[in-house]
Amino acid sequence: MCWYSTLLWFTFAQAMARPTDSQCVLDLKRERAKCSFNKEEITNLLDGGVEKTANRRQIEDLFLSDPEFLDPIRPEYMSHEDRYANELRKACHMVRKFNEDEKVQQIVGQMEGIRTLMGSGLGVALTKDGNPLALHYVMFLPAIMGHGTVDQQAEWMGRAWAGQIFGTYAQTELGHGTFLRGLETTATYDPDTQEFVLHSPTITATKWWPGGLGKTVNYAVVMAQLYTKGTCHGIHPFIVQLRDEETHQSMPGVTVGEIGPRLGLNTNDNGFLRFDHCRIPRTNLLMKHSKVLEDGTYVKPANDKLAYGTMVFVRVAICFDSYRQLQRAVTIATRYSAVRHQSELVPGAPEPQILDYQTQQYKLLPQIATIFGIHFATKDVWDTYNEVTGNIQVGNLDLLPELHALSCGLKALSSGDASSGIETCRLACGGHGYLSSSNLPRIYTTTTAAITYEGENTVMWLQVARYLIKSYREARQGLALHHSVSYLSAQPASTHTTSQLSNAGLVEAYKATVSSMVSETAARLQEYCDMGRPFEHAWNSSSVLLVKCAQAHIRYFTCEKYVVGVENPGLSEGVQNVLRQLCRLYLIYHITLNQGDFLRSGALTGYNMSILEGEMCRLLAALRPDAVSLVDSFDVHDRILDSTLGCWDGNVYQSLDKEHSSIVASRKMSVVLGGWPSCSPRLGPE
Fold it and tell me: Which of 60, 423, 454, 508 is catalytic?
């Protein structure tokens, strides 16, 4: 048996040794004994039902019990080349398992299973520093499904699913990201040869950032400006072969490679791509919505908003992924806070658990509350997406603008809240949270990337603001508005203060505050225009306020869905009570963080604020006994947490000591025996 296999089996034996109640530290036993609700019920709620919980656990067991997914050496101790080879080895094995393992296929379908795995805690546990094949499943295949004709899907999908070809999605350029109309890559149609000629006219036209592009993939869906008969018809998707399927050498007219080390996700294999008059067949233009005929005639899509569907899907997926990442971080920090004893709360008394300090509760409990807020809001948008997708098929696009605005805003809110929340969790763990073995640094760097990709958050907020201002102006004209912005139909009652501090009353305070902010910002925008400024300059001069309006609107939307979600009559009394407390904490927490907006609008008074601040402190104390049980209900496997601080049994210091010892031993063995198995996307380990 080679050194690599020996290390795998040695590590596997250690990793699969599950903790028992007898091994659990006394602090966590006491915490779990306080639980006031049914933990399994919350697990089922977050998973989407009892059956989905069972399926998730079965998938986790099948993958986590496979020794091929273990890392005998922590990635931090590998070279860049070895890290990439290791993660690619596991990614290839993952694909084989979905294609060939009958047990996996019985539990969940191939497409749903791979998407679930790529975007779940299990996926990031298996390929810790980024999956070089992720974009193949998350973007390449969905782009062909969303933009390709039936014939094009038949030509490409089978080979892509079988792993005969691997692709990525090449949109972002060195000089342009979110502003798609500014992309410089051109695709000019040549009717004499019935080919498109792809070209990068400037250095800033270089495609930059696509995952898997550096060394892994051989195809890409490339977004480029379509030119035919001397006219530019805007951005369109093209399937382009980048590397030879047998030799993996770059195709003529294609220059491709890596972009270098990054803050995180360093085995995502992000790369660059440049074209020098690269030719592809006319039929490589994905033509589900628009076409170019043989003579070069352009046939435009029935509606230019039809392409929104894929973007919405990806942004909603980011929302789910963001709160799952926050789940991991707050589970680690909360368990550690129950085990760690520090300082003296009462002079001369034993050192208390740091979870007993109100400041620690203030750091962690709002993060637990945030997970449920994002869950309820994202589920609502996901249900709307499915409804809109059905309507599109019959030509009804009425809800598409609202869905676009909600998905933009919720993507920005969830990724921003999750990133800041994870950093708060890291800080809550003191010095040990700075260790790589805590896994908090990696969770943070993985999550904070979502603030930028698939729509940079400031740009997303301004997209929401554009929808708000448009809706506000339509309301002033007497037009009916969609539900999420219907409150703009009434003039803001800036002098009306709510007399009710119930959940419903606080949601009304959010609504009145947002309405006042939008009304005031719209008036300022109009004032700039009346002064003779072009609208675009007036918009830029108001953009800080516009972003604040968008943030307040999506926070209000999340609060509204949160309140509705916790009043589910199907929930047991214990679960409903703890969720109501978390919802209440979420409402008050964000009011106190932004109290100036509520006071300025007149929706709440200083006296109201004083009452709410006192209630927030009482909520922290009331939720404190259930803190560990709440994070237990997230049901995150120890292998997925991958943390010395957050393990289920609470043996933090033993885990830290064992981690150090195993690293020293594995590094010595690696040095003595040398070399990491090479791997290719098609063949796996050689």
Answer: 454
